[in-house]
Amino acid sequence: MGIFTNRKKKKELRAAKIDDAFNRVYNQIEGIDSWEDPKKLEQYILDSCEQIISSTKEMERQKTEYRVVTRYLNDIKAIENLPKNEAKELRNTAARICELERNILDARTITRNISEEQFEVISSEEEDMPDIINRFRSDEIYQSKLKRNLSYLEGEKSRWEIEREDLSSQNKLFKRMAMAILVSFTTLLFLLILVYNNFKADVSLWAFIVLFICAASGFIIFLRQNTITRDNRVALVHLNQAISMLNVERMKYVNVTNSVEYSKDKYHVKNSAELQYIWEQYSDKVRDQQRYIQHNDDLEFYNGKLERILGSLGLADDKIWLNQVNALVDKQDMADCRHRLVQRRKKIRDRLDDHRRIVQEERDEIDRLMTEHEHYLPEIQEIIKSVDKLCGTSSRNSKRKA
User: Fold this and answer.
1) Where would you tag: which of 3, 70, 136, 336 has the fewest CB atoms within 10 A of its CB?
2) Are 99 and 291 in contact (CB under 8 A)?
3) Cα–Cα distance between 286 and 174 in angstroms, integer?
4) What single-letter DSSP state applies at residue 16?
5) What is the average pLDDT across 21-25?
C-alpha cells in the first residue's frame, strides 16, 4: 500500500508542476495579438499537451473499468465451476430469495377495500368486533321489527280514529232525526187538535197512530244512540291503547335507531353486512401485513446466508451478486450476464485503442511541429517532458533511436 501511495503522491506533485508551467506560458502568450506570431504555435502545442493529459486520464478510467469487468467475468467462471454441493446450496438460497422477493412484491400490490380511518377504528376494538357486528345485526333486525309494529299501530290508530269519526257522524245524524221526529209529532198533534176543535171529528185513531210511530221511532233512536255511545267508548279505549303502544314502540325505535346510526357513523358503513365485509377486509389486511413482515424477516435471513456463502468463495466482488440473484438461479440469465460483460469489455478495449491512437497522433503532431519550428518558450520543452513522464508517452524519434 505504501508503494502505491508514494506513486500517487509523485503523480500529484508532477501534475501540479505541469499546471504551474502551463500557467506561466499562458500568461506570456495572452499578450500576443497576431496569429502569425510564433508564440501561437506554442499555444497550439500546449493545447495538444492538455489533450494528451485528458485522454490519458480517460484511459486510466477505462483501464480501471476494464479490470473491474474482468474480475466480474472471473467471478462468473468461479461460480459456474463450483462443486455440486456448494452450487446446489447457493442455487437453493438464491431461489428462496427470488421467491421471497416476488411474494413481497405481490404483497405490495394487494389493496384491501378499507380506508385508513376504518382500519384505525377497528384495530382499537379488534377483539370485540365479532360481538359488535352481532349486536349491530341484532339492532337492525329489531329496528325492522319495530318499524313493522309502528306501521301496524299507526294503521290501528287511524282505523279507530276513523271509527270514532264515523260514530260521531252517526250520533249527530240520529240527533237530527230525533229532533225532526219531535217536530213532526208536535205538528201532527197540533193538527189533530185543530181538526177535533173545528170539525168535532174523531181523531183518536190518528192520534194513537202518531203516538205509536213517534214512540217506535224514539225507541229505535234511543237504542241506536246507546249502541253508538257504547261503540264510541270501545273505540276510544282501543284508540288510547294504540296511542300508548305506539308511543312505547316509538321510544324503542328511536333508541335502537340511535344505536344503529351510531354504529354507521363510527365505522363509516351503511349496514351490518357492510361492517362484516369491512371486518373481513381488515382481517385480510392484517394477515397481509404479518406475511409481509415474515417475508422480510426470511429475506433478511437468506440474504445473510447468501452473503456468507459468496464470501466463502473468495470472489473479487461478492456484494454485487446480492443484486443479481436471478443469475445465480437461472443459467440463461447467467449466460446473458456473461455475454453483456464480454461485450462491455470489448467496447472498453476498443475505446482504449482509440484513446491510444489519439494520444499518439497528438504526440506525433507535437514532434512534427517541434521539428519544423524552433520558436517556442523554454518552458515548452519542460512541459513536454513532464507530459511524457506523466502520461507514459514518448517521441517516435526517441523510440527509433532506442
Assistant:
1) 3
2) no
3) 78
4) H
5) 47
* Eight-class DSSP state of 271: S
> 273: phi > 0 → left, psi -120 to 50 → alpha, else beta; which?
alpha
Q: What is the pLDDT of residue 373?
A: 58
Q: Which ranges constitute the DSSP H helices of 110-128? A: 116-124
Q: How far apart are CA 344 and CA 76, in angstroms?
A: 15
How far is 273 from 261, CA to CA, in rounded Å? 14
Find, among 390, 395, 336, the residue nearest to 19 by Cα.
390
Write the CA distances from 276 to 111, 136, 254, integer angstroms: 18, 10, 24
Give the predicted TM-score (pTM) of the model: 0.59
Distance CA(115)–CA(214), nearest Å, equals 85
Cβ atoms < 10 Å from Cβ of 233? 12
213-237 residue pLDDT tens:
777 777 777 777 788 788 888 888 8
* 275 neighbors 263 (Cβ within 8 angstroms): yes
55 in Cβ contact with 359 (< 8 Å): yes
